[in-house]
């Protein structure tokens, strides 16, 4: 269930049973000429809601702006600086802990969020350790695009054209949640230049002129998204159950 659609007595009863919450986190950034700006937030949210429905868990409001400075060479992209994102995540966790939540599973849709999330977790653990409250909180990170079940599906459907940004898998998953949103755009070349390196927004645009990294998102289909959703939700449920058992 969405936290936003609950009342405080309902949350209080939930906390008596399970002090855990799923927190979707994405980004607002270009996903090539055919991918939706909201892809990373929409996919993280859809997966979190899918797992929560099965597990009877609560889902926090999606953090839809992430650390995406390298995408600012393209219109529609927005970013927090790394230190801001660390502060936002720390405040979210520490404030919700004050109301009774203790276990936080971040369902992440964007690679640029990984380092700030890890730093935020270290700050949170410093807070508890310094205050003599070590063990009071637990934060886990689930990067859905690195999900174990995803690899074989992606290799079968897209091979090397999966690439690493504006991937057909993320485009298919977003299209599964938001039907009718697949764009019919001619991509040239069909599979974008690959690579993993970039520095600032200008460097990124120079290396990856249309925004994609090594991908051919024209291969994405809505029905692929259904398959990806089911497989990744199963992995996510495993991570959730491990967290609440800890
Ligand atoms: Ni993405």
Task: Chart the SSEs and their pairings.
Layout: H1 8-17, E1 20-25, H2 39-55, H3 82-98, E2 103-108, H4 114-130, E3 138-143, H5 150-158, H6 168-177, H7 201-207, H8 222-245
Which strands sit side by side, in order, in the main sheet?
1-2-3
Indicate the mean pLDDT: 98
Helix and strand run: HEHHEHEHHHH
- Please give the largest β-sheet: 3 strands, parallel
Question: What's the total helix number?
Answer: 8
**What's the CATH H-level superfamily name?**
Creatininase
Number of strands: 3
Structural account:
- With 246 residues, this protein is mainly α.
- The chain has one domain (3-245): Rossmann fold.
- 45% of the residues lie in helices and 7% in strands.
- It contains eight helices and three strands.
- The chain has helices spanning 8-17, 39-55, 82-98, 114-130, 150-158, 168-177, 201-207, 222-245; strands at 20-25, 103-108, 138-143.
- Strands 1-2-3 form a three-stranded parallel beta sheet, sandwiched between helices.
- Strand 2, helix 4 and strand 3 form a beta-alpha-beta unit.
- Helix 2 (39-55) packs across helix 6 (168-177), helix 3 (82-98) packs across helix 4 (114-130) and helix 6 (168-177) crosses helix 8.
- The chain is globular.
- Residues 31, 39-40, 110, 170 line the site of nickel (II) ion.
